[in-house]
Amino acid sequence: MQDAEGIKRLLAEDQAKDVVIIGGGLIGVEVTEALVSKGCRVTIVEKLPQIFGMLDWEMARLVTQHMEAKGVKVLTDHTVVKFEGEGAVEKVVTDKETLAADMVVMAIGVRPAVGLAKDAGLAIGDFRALVVDGTMKTSDDNIYAVGDCVESKDRITGKACYMTMGSTANKHGRVAANNICGRKDIFPGVLGSTVCKVFDFTVGRTGLTEAAAKQEGYDVEVVLAPGPDRAHFMENAKPLLLKLVVDKKTRKLLGAQATGPGDVDKRIDVAAMTLAAKMTVDDLANMDLCYAPPYSPAMDNIITAANVARNKLDGYIEGISAKEVHEMKEAKKDFVFLDVRSQAESDEVRLSNSTLIPLGALRLRIDELPKNKEIIAFCKISLRGYEAALILKAAGFKKVRVMDGGVVMWPYRKEK
Amino acid sequence: MQDAEGIKRLLAEDQAKDVVIIGGGLIGVEVTEALVSKGCRVTIVEKLPQIFGMLDWEMARLVTQHMEAKGVKVLTDHTVVKFEGEGAVEKVVTDKETLAADMVVMAIGVRPAVGLAKDAGLAIGDFRALVVDGTMKTSDDNIYAVGDCVESKDRITGKACYMTMGSTANKHGRVAANNICGRKDIFPGVLGSTVCKVFDFTVGRTGLTEAAAKQEGYDVEVVLAPGPDRAHFMENAKPLLLKLVVDKKTRKLLGAQATGPGDVDKRIDVAAMTLAAKMTVDDLANMDLCYAPPYSPAMDNIITAANVARNKLDGYIEGISAKEVHEMKEAKKDFVFLDVRSQAESDEVRLSNSTLIPLGALRLRIDELPKNKEIIAFCKISLRGYEAALILKAAGFKKVRVMDGGVVMWPYRKEK
Q1: What is residue A328's DSSP assignment?
Q2: Which residues are B153's β-sheet partners?
């Protein structure tokens, strides 16, 4: 509270032009947006290779680009070494740069205040928070604990985790009160569902990221599905990028991430329900979600994403991430990087070393492509890229992949 | 298509000032909104006692009031007898009224064109549409059928139904194509998920209405939960009314309806997932839906509604509908109609024959209430009404009920 009042005072006195935010998590990003709206020049300093650790890197990259477009400087892989200044901070020195700073906001995470609990001999878990059972009871039968000072159970992995959300704390309170008052109630754990406003974007996630799923030992398939968030002919349709992480073995959803100016929270909530119900992408693909043009496409974005996942799981489409393509290019691997967009789209933005054959002309010009080289097809979102791959495979091309998410997901330098 | 062109032509020629829409379903209402935005004076004539037959009456009533506030005349229980005019329609005569009409739009439902299918000897169901199995195959092994010409399976009741939605038709197409091409895919049926924009309101539903559930023989509990659709301190928070229908025996959700200017479609999609997963309201109440103040309250509206349902199922709150209260008042039943809102709220709108004791004063003034009469408590949304009921019960009052949804759901004349 005092910090918030201090920030407001400095802003009111016009004493905070250059602000450095240390930590690129939820709090750091939310404070960034607030301060930019007050006219501050904001730099985020993040120790890790990406901000928004709750997202996979390519999703975080899109959010970072949006923040940069709003004038925010985002420094990743930067470690703060010291602060400099006379009486008040004037500079933040990282291991790579020195930044002007009239104000510094530390947003490097939260740690539960469990001193009292420790003194009382209550069990503390690996995340330095209180251990509770499903009734929110601590290791002492007469003591219950709720909110940011307790560990939760991850509903996907079944393991303990530490997730601090106001929504979770509210539910904890009710569960504990019910049990204390003799009414049985079990808190089932969390999915890590999160949503955050970042300027004109919404960022959301639930369940495991691709990175976390792999770390847990899952063999995963991923989908990147960009598209308008409602019927494309509606004036209020906005772009939305959805990522699904799916367990190859069980075909069950493991996690979802979404970002863009479009309607993110609805799809993340549907994904959270899919996770809680342990549904497969096949179940999700035929779900009766409500539809009218002002609210969603006839095939909702998450249903399309589920169908892409099914196509991948069933071997109809082999994807490759933009990152892997980039690495292949850097390593001078020999392959055809096939752009099947229109000439006009390519004139606007082209990716280096790509070969342009618009989808409509592909059957006619198919002989221009070598059968002995790998072909990686793409378009703006890789829907036409997928169609191209099907045409090529039907024509006898053996090694054809599609770049996941298309040009939308290409975070490297785009050429004119 | 020709009808749409005809309507556009009449509008362009300024020949459609008074328009009568026959039929108050989805199409009738959507056309009404479009025509009002073009400056027409629109009257909807509906044969049944309510428009929006897909909703329970009290929900439909709220939507009707909103349409009336936008200048639409809504005539229910009116049967069209004839059209009058010279060369073109000039009047619509119902069994009760004669209406001026430069244009009439018939929106009385759709009937599948199954002539060809009948001639081919294919099985036709009770809804006069084609019978298909889960693979979308008709009674002929070599013929598949999809879209508005086929019957669906209701996922709640397991029975055949006829629901025509673009989203369903799209899914049908994929399932049929998959099966025709040798890839197994089963369409699981529909939930009746629907969403519709009605001026500043969104109207949505999924699963069974209270009326339909009762007709199916379910013993149901219902919840009416009005509230802001995101954190109440957010400027973009808008009112949302949610109704849940719950099976008393299994505690499973049977259906949900929502309306208001708030974010309806997200909650209806979450409800649809709850239905498909056959989850109880207990499951739903502890669901990890994504939360941030710009997107939802900390306890999402549907989670609060699920908790109200749990309180009702567990006997902590006994509800009574506004309709039943109204009937008790009409029948001059002896009960205390206890308003626990503030004096200011009561000064603005009061319900007739109500007794005002603001919640904060209830404990002090509890002796003013008779212990031998039934008390029906209410406030604006009946949250304080519920708290009042708990206080009264703890003080020994035996017969206390809470009016579901509070003043928000009172469709009768409100007094100043």
Answers
A1: H
A2: B160
Residue type, A276: A
Domains and CATH numbers, chain B: 2-106 (3.50.50.60), 115-180 (3.50.50.60), 194-313 (3.50.50.60), 319-409 (3.40.250.10)
Q: Do the Cβ atoms of A279 and B279 come within 8 Å?
A: no
Yes or no, beta carbons of B266 and A268 under 8 Å apart: no
- Closest partner CB to B290 (pick from A175, A265, A294): A265
| Assembly ipTM | 0.95
Q: Cβ separation of B273 and A268 shorter than 8 Å?
A: no
Contacts by residues B331-334 (CB-CB < 8 Å, ≥ 24 positions apart)? B334/B373, B334/B374
Enumerate the residues of chain A whose CB falls inside 8 A of the CB of residue B292.
194-197
DSSP classification of residue A99: E
Q: On the CB side of A84, how many CA atoms lie within 13 Å of its CA?
A: 9
Task: Give the distance from residue B194's alpha carbon to the nearest chain A alpha carbon, in angstroms.
Answer: 5
If DSSP states are collapsed to H, E and C, what string results for chain B? CHHHHHHHHHHHCCCCCEEEEECCCHHHHHHHHHHHHCCCEEEEECCCCCCCCCCCHHHHHHHHHHHHHCCCEEECCCCEEEEECCCCCCEEEECCCEEECCEEEECCCCCCCCHHHHHCCCCECCCCCECCCCCCECCCCCCECCHHHECEEECCCCCEECCCCHHHHHHHHHHHHHHHCCCCCCCCCECCCEEEEECCEEEEEEECCHHHHHHCCCCEEEEEEEEECCCCCCCCCCEEEEEEEEECCCCEEEEEEEEECCCHHHHHHHHHHHHHCCCEHHHHHCCCCCCCCCCCCCCCHHHHHHHHHHHHHCCCCCEECHHHHHHHHHCCCCEEEEECCCHHHHHHCECCCEEECCHHHCCCCHHHCCCCCEEEEECCCCHHHHHHHHHHHHCCCCCEEEECCHHHHCCCCCEC
* Tens of each residue's pLDDT in chain A, 416 residues: 999 999 999 999 988 999 999 999 999 999 999 999 999 999 999 999 999 999 999 999 999 999 999 999 999 999 999 999 999 999 999 999 999 999 999 999 889 999 999 999 999 999 999 999 999 999 999 999 999 999 999 999 999 999 999 999 999 999 999 999 999 999 999 999 999 999 999 999 999 999 999 999 999 999 999 999 999 999 999 999 999 999 999 999 999 999 999 999 999 999 999 999 999 999 999 999 999 999 999 999 999 999 999 999 999 999 999 999 999 999 999 999 999 999 999 999 999 999 999 999 999 999 999 999 999 999 999 899 999 999 999 999 999 999 999 998 888 877 66
pLDDT of B412 higher than 90: no
Q: What is the pTM of this model?
A: 0.96
Contact criterion met (CB < 8 Å) for B191 and A276: no
